[in-house]
Specification:
heterotrimer; A mainly beta (199); B mainly beta (95); C alpha/beta (253); A: mainly beta; 3 helices; B: 95 residues; mainly beta; 1 helix; 8% helix
Chain lengths: 199, 95, 253
Amino acid sequence: MAIISRGFAGRRSAAEAKLPPGQYLTTDFPVLSAGPTPHISLDRWEFTIDDGSRVLKRWDWKSFRELPSETITVDIHCVTRWSKLGTSWEGVSLDVLLADVKTDSPYAMFRSYGDYTTNLPLKGVLNKQAWVAFKFDGADLAPEHGGPARLLVPHLYLWKSAKWVKGMTLMEHDKPGFWEGLGYHIYGDPWLEQRYSDQ
Amino acid sequence: MSAPMNYLDGNAAGGELSRIFAMDITSAEGQCANCGAKRRFAEAHLYVQCPGLVVRCTHCGHVLLRLVKTHQHVFLDLRGMTYLSVDAAQQEASN
Amino acid sequence: MAGTAVLRPVTWRSARVVGLRDETATARTITLVVRDWPGHIAGQHVDVRLTAPDGYSAVRSYSIASAPNSDGRIEITVERLPNGEVSPYLTKELMVGDDLELRGPIGGWFVWRRGQTEPIQLVAGGSGIVPLMAMIRSRASAGSFAPFRLLYSVREPGAVFYRDELQALSDQDHSVIVTYAYTRVTPKDSPRPPGRIDAMLIAAGTWPSDLGPTSYVCGPTSFVENATDLLIAAGHGRENIRTERFGATGERK
């Protein structure tokens, strides 16, 4: 039975905007990371799509930036309970990246520079639900926020929006990524408060 | 340096890990399963600004230990260490 | 003696605030009487947990500032961080008579034991002085003759914790030598311009490595990395340097 601390409310403030359950509004942009910030030079950067044995698509920075991109404004929700509304990004939609990829694989493991991974169903990243984003708020994405490019999947908790993304491996069966394998929910819908695997 | 250093060290995880280990492992020696480096747990790099706790080898950067607390469970991944060795006599608070 | 491990689980205990003392404009020392306190070693810390009425809780670590004693009392010194969630509460809201939850003492590596006789080099960056002050106080209350030096880096003179006590100690006991380094604003009579600790200051203000000192470095991560690199460059072995990094610890559920 915890001792209640008289007069302590924490950082939360009342929000008029509708937030997913258990979230609070933040105006800053917390930097969360499970490791050191990788520094990837643009002449080394690649994004690849593979099926576990063959590379199906590969872009270097130049060819990636020649793809059609779009500017989007979305709300983001972190499982550590902060939400940031109306964030503006520019990125290439996963619909564009997967346009010529013929696959029956229902799942993908997204991989980042460093050792981070996160798994997603393809149905969760197609149809205007996910981007590989390279600009935030009109400026080049900063390294501590995932630059040069990060995955952005705003309809799920932000741990699915892998920073420093470098590719995706198509999978027949769902397999848990870095956090999903250690207690976090395999899917992660903030509106259903799918934080953990044991709920 | 331009980027702020976003890690602490094993000292800051001592309290959290004492729940699982029923003792203080900050003075334990650990061996990295990836590169074989042997270091004190207190000196390992600790990342806490994330949905869990991640401890990394100062020599090769590999993950030594990860911990996640859900509502009902504590998940602990120790695959990154070959061993943790504690000085049994020193677990007593002696001055 | 060897082989008889005493495994003490570290559980949450209640503590009552019995004293509050401002150290600087932004830092306050809190004196706590802790239920069933097992005693501590200088350098250890406690985790403090605050819980709001709706069950939301936050946990932060604070080094124990006081020397080991047997009266169940400890002191912690808390610096108010501009965007902090817990430190503004502890430095402005908390009142004598309030209860806190804490867990500890924690830490078996970054500690100074009274049986240690070798020269000790303490290097503090900002609030990193707190656990090192516990070591200085522990030495004094034990009547130890171990030679201590402190290199204490702060932004400006008003940011120094425990100044009068450090002054009195170095006046009366010449084996506690204190050197200050100011990074932004120096006092009027300062021989150095403001700046980070560098090789010259290490050479002038710390024990030479051939005395075989054990060094304790504490402060923000970048301070600790810089000071540690300088000590190694001055000939100290990495195995003789113990470090503790302070910084943002993020949210807890």
